[in-house]
Write a structure and sequence with these properties.
The complex is a heterodimer of chains A (223) and B (246). With 223 residues, chain A is an alpha+beta fold. Chain A has 4 helices and 12 strands, in the order E-E-E-E-E-E-H-H-E-E-E-E-H-H-E-E. In chain A, strands 10-1-2-11-12 form a 5-stranded antiparallel sheet, covered by helices on one side. A 5-stranded antiparallel sheet of chain A has the order 5-6-7-8-9, covered by helices on one side. Chain A is globular, with a radius of gyration of 18 Å. Chain B has one domain: Aminohydrolase, N-terminal nucleophile (Ntn) domain (Glutamine Phosphoribosylpyrophosphate, subunit 1, domain 1, 4-Layer Sandwich), CATH 3.60.20.10. In chain B, the strands form 2 sheets. In chain B, strands 1, 4, 5, 6, 7, 8, 9 and 10 form an 8-stranded antiparallel sheet that branches. In chain B, strands 11-2-3-12-13 form a 5-stranded antiparallel sheet. Classes of the chains: A alpha+beta (223), B alpha+beta (246). At the A-B interface, strand 4 and helix 1 of A face helix 3 and strand 10 of B.
Amino acid sequence: MTKQQANWSPYDNNGGSCVAIAGADYCVIAADTRMSTGYNILTRDYSKICKLADKCVMASSGFQADVRALQKVLAARHLIYQHQHNKQMSCPAMGQLLSNTLYYKRFFPYYSFNVLGGLDNEGKGCVFTYDAVGSYERVGYSSQGSGSTLIMPFLDNQLKSPSPLLLPAQDAVTPLSESEAIDLVKTCFASATERDIYTGDKLEIVILNADGIRREYMELRKD
Amino acid sequence: MNLVDSTQVNSTLLSSETASSERTLYPYVTGTSVIGIKYKDGILMAADMGASYGSTLRYKSVERLKPVGKHSLLGASGEISDFQEILRYLDELILYDNMWDDGNSLGPKEVHNYLTRVMYNRRNKFNPLWNSLILGGIKNGQKYLGMVSMIGVHFEDNHVATGFGNHLARPILRDEWNENLSFEDGVKLLEKCMRVLLYRDRSAVNKIQIAKITEEGFTTYPPYALKTFWNFSAFENPTVGAEGSW
């Protein structure tokens, strides 16, 4: 007879989608607030967005327990950085730290899919996109998580970023204004929610610009 | 059983791995769903008192709702022995906190966070505590209700449920729960959920316990049975027309 008992996996997929868009003087980071396991919704109001530094915000989906562990490691490392350098970490520096932190657990990975958004040292919007083991790239916009297969091609179509193969290298930031970018993000999630069962309930949008940090919310389908 | 033997072979090769022969590879005695809700004055929880040994109903008077410190209430489903170990951890935590003698005490938020770290740490060692835990409480007028799973997934909500409760009780709670439930209405709502679970969850038993925690402290009520009705015509002769059945 085959084994007939409960078994366990150290991983789960709690779903969720994340998007970030960089502009000339702003950055928009967004994620839904649904947390699921299998066909169950665990809660409709769990924030996947974490502020890591003054000008640096991370949105993460995947396995919630790993995501929270990762956030705690980054928060602790950033606290040490502040004590040693008496300043906030820049977004590109946090980008490298996140990559190293993920790769450190290369052979028992954090099952988390992240986008990091913020402003670089010139005040320009920047987005870094990752896989679970830490390979990363600076881009103009990106999407991660369960709805990324629906959102990413839509962003490609709307934003038409210059090819990274072009020489000399072209600037990756999008030509949109801040409010246009926010509208685009809302449209992305409204559409992804229609087809992805792991995306929905509520959209949380974080906007970073020269004035500081701002949050907006939009209701999404709850089915 | 083969798994246990092979780890013992390993332990002779790697002497530091001796503890690995004590991993829970699957649960033995398990409790089923627990439900928790916020209500007007605090937190209410309900659980039945059965504990199953596989599919055998082995124990019929197991308390799965326990107070933790002055402000918190813990409900557990899953492996009963692991739950009892968690209670020992918490006893120590509360004792050592008390020994500071500074008038401070751990609230539900702190206890929940501690449980979260314990559960995640054990999954990282591939030696999980086989439980889904619900932690509720109230401190300084702040109500708190959260959940932790075996692998460390955790969240807060106005109402939570483990196991089958997630499928059967939470849809009812989403429909009928509201912030200002009185104690009586809260108990009625929990009973409605527990009754559905009793009818549809084979490991549920008709001996339930309700506990509450308010600013005044922890109260548990004597176990009792829910009224049930089995005389629906569909129940009368369930195998009629089923060829080859008895």
